[in-house]
Amino acid sequence: MLRPDGDAGDALTARCEVEVDGVVVSMVHSLQTGTVALQLEDGQIRRLLWDRPDPSVEGWCDPSGCSVSLPAPCTQTALCSIGGQEHLLGLTDRSHLYAGDTQLASNISSFAICNNFLLVTTHAHSCRCLRSTGSVAAAALASGDGQNDRDLRRWREDLESSLFVPQYTRVILQGVVLSSSARRCGCSFNGTKTLFYHLNFIYDHNPKVFLENIQTFISELNSTNHINLFLTELKEEDTTSSMYPRPDGSTLLPQTGGPKKVDVVCDALRRTMETLDQNKYFLSILTSHVKKTVPELEIALQKVHELRVKPPESPGSVSAEEALKYLLSSLTSIDLYDHSLGTYDFDLVLMVAEKSQKCDPKEYLPFLNMLKSLEQNYQRYTIDKHLKRYRKALQHLSKCGDGCFPEALQLVKEQKLFAEALRLYPADSPHYRALSCAYAEHLVEGRQAEQAGLLLWRCGELTSALQAFVSCSSWRNAICVAQQIPLPPEHLALLARDLAVKLSEQRRHAEAAVLLDQYAKDCEEAILALITGACWEEALRLIYTHNRQDITETNLKPALLDAVGAQNAFLDAQVATFTRHRSRLAAVREHKAKARLDMLDEEGLDCPDAELYSEASSVMTTSKYSHSNSRISSRSSKNRRKAERKKLSLKEGSPMEDRALMYALSELVTTVDKMREEVSDLLRALVLFQYHRQAEALQLAFQEALQMMEAAVPEVWPEGPQSGQTPLTGPNSTANSIMASFQQQQQQQQPPASQQDADFLVPPKMRNCIKWKLSILT
């Protein structure tokens, strides 16, 4: 090691000598860490400990303590940090780039280190800039892809990097100056333009810092054109995620919710420019209005009109003609004309029309003259209707007096603005009543008769409200309206009978009985309705309330015996169907398991068809139906479930027979489980009238049905391997059977492919908490 000679300033003297076991072919020093690495002719790497009182040499080792050597002698070496560890990079004469003993790439012509960046030139005529601090650099070099497209520069000749220009974003390649993206943090406007960076990066790099220094940003630009360019390139896209990935370990979180990025930047720039010099930055202020996600064209046009009415006196200010010409260059003239018309300012409209080349004076002048002749509110209504701003048009038309109400009502019907119209008129006005009637007609057409009845009842149209309530069987509201009219008693009784018939058809027997008993004054018909609906206790209450015990013998007891017979027959049918489906499901599963094992035995474990057939129980022909699923994605959930169930067929041999059987079994369990309350009520009535034998038989049959179905649940919906499959291990197991069992277990652990799969793969829940049994029958 040498050092300057103290006596002779231009001479060097030896400080010390260190012996190295081998021939040193190159030496490299890191200015950041102070490390010195030696490369020997056989590829070994040595670390020179030169900053100690007694310098020495030691081997180069990785974090695990293993020695590291270069696979081949390298003509160029450099030290850099990759993934937080210091590595010696070496480039051989065969274009192989190594990091220690690991090859990074095989097409590198030269490389250089600049701070935390690695620049390489390749034989593909490209220069790539990669972060050397992260582990992605090695992966990017190995894959042949840059970290992103912005890290890649191409040319036509084979060039090699010579040196970097310190503190600047350029690298010299054999005399050619190439802009590099090594210094990403240089977020100046001119820098981003020169390097072809997206201008959104100026904000996206650090939004908080940008907004805090927005005045400095404007002052340093000091150019309306540059500010306009920045505003016009604004997008909601976050360039630090899509184009310029952040460094590893970055903690800057993306903004979620709240105002949109474009609106935030436009508002912040506009407020600052208005504070600094509104006249100087007038065009940029207009751009900030136009560029927002919902363009504020009316505000921009109004500012141009104010500029025309009161021109600024300061020199260099923008004139109204120049501002309007700028807006016309940014937007289509038709759009600008329509928006100017929406300001109701005819001077502004004429100014825009005169500057536009697409507006014909023969068309817009007669139209404007016609508008000027109208009353102000009707004028604005005509303009808004022309611009298809129907809500605003309705607001203006509602102020035009009673004579324009028919036109307003027609507009409301055409554009379905009923809710908006009701808010514009007093609730006690005839206009409000007419709008309510029109709204009710619209609701009735949309099968919302109950809401229509509420509107009509509210505005005093009782007869129409009664008709609406009756049509939708809203009997409580109908009775209230009928008594408010009021209807004569005989008419009220007739209305109650009509409503009772409708409710009985809808199996709402208890409600029908209330109407017959309280309003039609026909207790016998009310009791019969309750008996028909199996409301035994309520029927008994009315029997004793009206002293009609005769109905007990003539109607109630026979109905109880009929109900017992019907319940027993229904239970027998459900149990028989459940047993048949359960047996068939076991047979289908056994057949498919046997077929899968036969294929494995014939073709061997490596047969690709074996894996496909292992899913035959559910997926053999799924592709046949998968295309139909895509066509029903836009349907309602009810129709979608109906279309999905069409795929399930109980026909023997169908591709999805096992799933169809599971679905049918689930429906049977749910149906029988829902009978708990109905059977409990029937048992109580049977016991009351001494029908012990029939009650005991029904309770026993229902209990056995529930127990049988509950016991079958683990078999039909197994949590683990299916009961019919071959065990994983055992004296009778073969290699093929073990592999088949393992594959089937893997399939069962996979999540369901659709909501329909989840519906029948999950066992139905039985409501064992409901107490339905009678202890006096056991």
UniProtKB/TrEMBL annotation:
<dbReference type="InterPro" id="IPR056167">
    <property type="entry name" value="A-sol_ELP1"/>
</dbReference>
<dbReference type="GO" id="GO:0033588">
    <property type="term" value="C:elongator holoenzyme complex"/>
</dbReference>
<feature type="region of interest" description="Disordered">
    <location>
        <begin position="624"/>
        <end position="653"/>
    </location>
</feature>
<dbReference type="InterPro" id="IPR056169">
    <property type="entry name" value="HB_ELP1"/>
</dbReference>
<dbReference type="InterPro" id="IPR006849">
    <property type="entry name" value="Elp1"/>
</dbReference>
<dbReference type="Pfam" id="PF23878">
    <property type="entry name" value="TPR_ELP1"/>
</dbReference>
<feature type="compositionally biased region" description="Low complexity">
    <location>
        <begin position="741"/>
        <end position="760"/>
    </location>
</feature>
<feature type="domain" description="ELP1 three-helical bundle">
    <location>
        <begin position="550"/>
        <end position="716"/>
    </location>
</feature>
<dbReference type="Pfam" id="PF23925">
    <property type="entry name" value="A-sol_ELP1"/>
</dbReference>
<dbReference type="Pfam" id="PF23797">
    <property type="entry name" value="Beta-prop_ELP1_2nd"/>
</dbReference>
<feature type="domain" description="ELP1 N-terminal second beta-propeller">
    <location>
        <begin position="24"/>
        <end position="155"/>
    </location>
</feature>
<feature type="compositionally biased region" description="Low complexity">
    <location>
        <begin position="624"/>
        <end position="636"/>
    </location>
</feature>
<dbReference type="GO" id="GO:0005829">
    <property type="term" value="C:cytosol"/>
</dbReference>
<dbReference type="InterPro" id="IPR056166">
    <property type="entry name" value="TPR_ELP1"/>
</dbReference>
<dbReference type="Pfam" id="PF23936">
    <property type="entry name" value="HB_ELP1"/>
</dbReference>
<dbReference type="GO" id="GO:0000049">
    <property type="term" value="F:tRNA binding"/>
</dbReference>
<feature type="domain" description="ELP1 TPR">
    <location>
        <begin position="378"/>
        <end position="541"/>
    </location>
</feature>
<dbReference type="InterPro" id="IPR056165">
    <property type="entry name" value="Beta-prop_ELP1_2nd"/>
</dbReference>
<protein>
    <submittedName>
        <fullName>Uncharacterized protein</fullName>
    </submittedName>
</protein>
<feature type="domain" description="ELP1 alpha-solenoid">
    <location>
        <begin position="197"/>
        <end position="371"/>
    </location>
</feature>
<dbReference type="GO" id="GO:0002926">
    <property type="term" value="P:tRNA wobble base 5-methoxycarbonylmethyl-2-thiouridinylation"/>
</dbReference>
<feature type="region of interest" description="Disordered">
    <location>
        <begin position="740"/>
        <end position="760"/>
    </location>
</feature>
